[in-house]
Amino acid sequence: MTQEQICILITIALYLGFMLYLGARYSKSTRSTDDFYLGGRRLGPYVTAMSAEASDMSSWLLMGLPGVAYLTGICEPIWTALGLGIGTYFNWLIVAKRLRHYSEIVDAVTVPSFFDKRFRDKSHILLGAAAVVIVVFFVPYTASGFNACGTLFASLFGIDYRVAMIVSAVVIVGYTAMGGFTAASTTDFIQSIVMSIALVMVLCFGISVAGGPGVVMADAAGLEGYLSLTHSYNAAGGEAVSYGGLLGIVSTLAWGLGYFGMPHILLRFMAIRDPKEIKVSRRVGTVWVFIAMGVAIVIGMVALSMTKVGALADLTVNGSTSAQRAIIEIANLLASNGIFPALLAGVVMAGILACTMSTCDSQLLAASSSVSEDIIQGVFGIKVSEKMTLVIARVTLVIIAVFAALWAWEEGSVFAIVSFAWAGFGAAFGPVMLCALFWKRANAWGAIAGMIGGGVTVFVWEYLVSPMGGIFAIYELLPAFIVGLVLCVAVSLLTPAPQQAILDEFALAAKLDKEDK
After folding, report:
1. Which one of 28, 116, 204, 316 has the largest count of C-beta atoms within 10 Å of its C-beta?
2. What is the CATH number of the domain that holds 248?
3. Is 203 inside a domain boundary?
4. Residue 513 domain-assigned?
5. Which H, E and C letters describe 143-197, residue by residue?
């Protein structure tokens, strides 16, 4: 092992050790399921904002997004980032406060339990369906994070990808299982800071190696379609590829719709200590998201320019699998300049881990809560003590992590996995969440139809419709979201109206939301 690798390893080891320390520390204050899943609703505005956005960004921010920009130009990543930025803002603006009030009124600590109690579904079909959706889509989502960790360590130290992936998974599961939601949120806040430092360091170093901002822009402008907002650059050579016109752009912007259905983000809204502090969280979170994604896209451009001057090897050899290593290769180059730069490179690598871990821990919590709280106790009605509930939650978390590790056994594209899972949550939960919060006529049957219809459409569109090409080759979230919304509204109108008690709770949530504005 070289001197540079040792420096990087020391930095990463210190970082991972600190994460485990936080997990052990917060395990002492985690005495109930409310503490484990929502931190007792005690999160401050800054921790709420940055933990929500850090858990949102995942490994695709530092690996997936620069990799796509490197391979295809700025068209797809720009429209994706714009959609996500707008979605972030409106999710904080219209959903956060109402959900915080409403979830407390019905005493819900998970997203499935909120749906169940909001609609008073005595059959618990809605609860079970929501819990299954979370497990189905969070396993591959979490797997993408394990994938990124394995790719990172395999690239850095030349060790086996699978060994690296398993070790990373053990650390993530360790601090999450010990400390629960508070540990995950606190570490996410710290990880968002580390991610920010990593982005800035890579950007500045990369630009200096490439020859300056002017050189980077000139290199990008010299590639056909690279800076186009309507065509994608063809890394394999040849003419630029049309991005599908207005429909293609709109479907990419639809990434923003996914926010309304992301359980790990919605849980942050439910956990903030004071709904009046959400305005601060909204401003902090939205600004950070726009800046972070913008820098990540530019890093892809910088990496391409560094390849042109010979500082980096060609990363188009194996498509997205190689391109998503751009930031790792830049950090490796930084580390070759001496001990101090190697330590700085270690911070960059820790930033990549932060991106991954901040999402994995939140996803594992949401998935484990769905099994232990919603399926075992809610659907099957198995009553256990508070202490045993925590044991079940932690065991479930480990089991789900094992399935995610098996999914990540073979190295693949982080961006592709995240894209599919994002569409699944957005289509299954997004329309139902909006109807639950803002339409008093919505009922349980409409919610069930919308949730199942939206989730199924994601699979149908991805594997049956999209391969037909043409106008059908759009991001599956857009058509699936529309199907879910239409079904939720139509079935609600065709079935009996909600009972008065439900309408009273809806009115109270709306009143509290209005009073806080």
Report:
1. 116
2. 1.20.1730.10
3. yes
4. no
5. HHHHHHHHHHHHHHHCCCHHHHHHHHHHHHHHHHHHHHHHHHHHHHHHHHHHHHH
Dihedral of CA 427/407/185/290: which sign?
negative
Give the residue carrying structure tokens 């700025």: 74
Length of the chain, in residues: 517
Tokens of 16: 């991972």
H runs (alpha helix) in 414-462 = 414-438, 444-460
Beta bridge partners of 241: 232
Residues 396 and 51: their CA atoms lie apart, in Å, by: 23
Contact 146, 331 (CB under 8 A): no
Beta-carbon contacts of residue 211 (< 8 Å; ≥ 6 apart): 305, 309
Question: In the predicted model, is pLDDT for residue 319 greater than 80?
Answer: no
Question: Exposed (0-12), middle (13-18) or buried (19+): which is 227, by Cβ within 10 Å?
Answer: middle
Q: Specify if 45 maps to a domain.
A: yes
pLDDT band at 258; cut points 50, 70, 90: very high
- The half-sphere exposure of 221 on its side-chain side, counting CA atoms within 13 A, is 6
Structural domain tally of the chain?
1
Asked if residue 50 lies in contact with residue 284, where contact means CB atoms within 8 angstroms, the answer is yes
Give the E-state strand segments of 64-171 in sequence order: none
pTM above 0.70, yes or no: yes
For the record, the structure tokens of 136 come out as 């189905």
Answer whether 343's CB lies under 8 Å from 11's CB: yes
Q: What is the pLDDT of residue 199?
A: 85
Q: Residue 179 and residue 171: Cα distance in Å, rounded?
A: 13
Q: Which domain holds residue 174?
A: 3-315+322-413
Q: Report the amino acid identity of residue 82.
A: L
Q: Is residue 516 predicted with pLDDT exceeding 90?
A: no
Q: Are 474 and 247 in contact (CB under 8 A)?
A: yes
